[in-house]
Amino acid sequence: MRAWMHGCDGSVLLNATNGFEAEKDQIPNKSLKGFDAIEKIKSKLESVCPRIVSCSDILVLAARDSVYLSGGPFYSLRTGRRDSLTSFAQTALDDIPAPTDPLDTFLEKFSHRNISLRETVCLFGAHSNGEVHCEFIKERFTNFNGTGQPDPTIEPGCKNTTRSKCMSDPTAFVDLKNEGAQQTGFGIHYFQGLVQNLSVLESDQELMNSEKTASWVRAYASNQFIFMNDFSSAMIKLSDLGVLTGPQLGEIRSTCSAINQ
Fold this sequence. Notes:
- The protein is mostly helical.
- 43% of the residues lie in helices and 2% in strands.
């Protein structure tokens, strides 16, 4: 959900150089993983058809296929994107919601990209997969609002398991699949976990605090068909944001972590 600063241009894949900082190193992107997998795919493609398939296309197709292999929907995507010539570190800090941000910040920043409230709630279902670093949740599980205690709204089993893991290893990552929630079915178990106060991230659980978002959480928790359709449409919309096309814009990198020399 976070690789979108100037659109789907692969800028988040670039490593830092002497000339610029990298998006991937900024706090909102600190939990991102899988860069090595993208490089492996690119290497295979370059050996067969060099400088034909962009890193941006690889990224959206890999995301789509990982969703499908996890039990989510398969959706059609257009290809032909080109790769950004630079990374946007400061924009990442300013415009990407961080895991510790309140829900209103997520809704506002997604709205700036013309992503509706319904689409935003649906895209939270991507948290069916992935992990978050303990750094981003330790305050909620150990010192919520400066009380010295965990957030009292967290389901006890989720609270005890997550707090124990992060206290024993502050560098650990915690699964986003809501500790104790049903573990089958892309999307539906995530939203069912929210209904049961099983969310690891406070911003996720805040989806239940307002009826305007909670109504969609309950809809997706009870109807996998609605979620699958909405998620497919929202992901297609994200993949079409700010695409670079044509020879005058961007390039097709030979290595996803660096621009061509």
